[in-house]
Predict the structure of Helix-turn-helix domain-containing protein.
Amino acid sequence: MPTTSLGTVVAENAIRFLGHDTHQHDEPHLVYVVTGNACLTADGEEWRLGRHEALWLAPRVPHALRIEPGGMALGPFLDPAEQPRCRVQPLGAVPALTEVMTTALGAAPSTPEQVEPFRQALGRVLRGISRQYFPVVLPVHPAVRALAREALRTPSATLESLAERHRMSARQVQRVFLDETGLPFTRWRNRARMNAAVEHLRGGGELTAAARAAGYATRAGLLRGLSRESGVPVSELTTDAVGALGG
């Protein structure tokens, strides 16, 4: 397969690309935006990614990427053991991940032997950030599952507006959430958002950026939510959130 200096078309073992049509891989896959903006369609859903933001794909997830002019993304394959929690797991901008990807970009590995150390480093970062601090599961019901994913992408959307878009009543959605996740909708969404914030903090991010990555308007709002759900005082979370939450 032909290549260019920027990897517009890349060989199988290369880790950088500028976009591609719908396809899938037999290995877990990371999409990381180096600069600019990108639009990823995965499993029929659309995800907007900005600079340093990443998305983790399970094996055999159909996806396509379009990068805006002047942008660039990297797309490393991962070890088969590095599986995301769900088929498509957004990661936001994680500093530890950015460090690995920036180093890889500078090193420009082109053979399997050269790529392997970076694959291992990515695995360590992903394992470190992907443990759920607040266990949540997606609903099984197809419409409610789609609603749940949309709720995480649009944290300001109300349950009523989400239910209407998915042709359900808010009461129906609440019943499915309770039956299939054990949590009311609002608490489920809050816990899922806080998991995104904890992932960011574990990856070396600071509280304001973690709040933004999780869809909170302010860092104070995130701290209150974390304290309420975990029982850890706000003062301890402010001083050392990762340590206060048990690493």
In short: DSSP finds nine helices and nine strands in the chain. The beta strands are 16-17, 19-23, 29-35, 38-42, 45-49, 53-57, 63-67, 72-74, 88-93. The longest strand covers residues 29-35. Residues 84 and 134 are 16 Å apart (CA to CA).
